[in-house]
Specification:
The protein has about 160 residues and is mostly helical. The chain has seven helices and no strands.
Amino acid sequence: MKYFWLTLKHKWFVFKTGRKLKVPLWRLIIHDWTKFLPSELPHYQRQFFGSKDDPAGFMECWLHHQNHNPHHWEYWIPRTGHNRCVPPFPDNNPIPMPDWAVREMVADWMGAGRAYEGKYPDPHNWTWLNKKYPEIKNRLAYVTQLRLDKVINELREDISWAG
């Protein structure tokens, strides 16, 4: 039950950040809805507040979450050559994320920082993002990289985030 409440808290902070980042309202309402499903909730509960005795179950849960929530960049990575894409999206290259998904992704990262660490990350000195950004950016379509840079710069230009 603790994870249920933590998820609601996370959703609230994503909602607040998402409104600033101009994420569509509907996306903010349904953000992380799959975390309340039986395929995810018990696994998250154990991983955050339990024995962590089912790592394979949690990995399956995390994959389910990524595959059903387009605000995760992993959602946009084709995994097989069966997608019959034509240029400019050859097999297994990342599909560009729409602007709304990039904005929701950044709101998710900010909301996670606030919910799990007790404060919003400082967009100018964001430890988690500074560490993860090179890996994430290299796995995104070029247009998604540009959109992500734009949204992060918007955060940095907004003085209300200043420390």
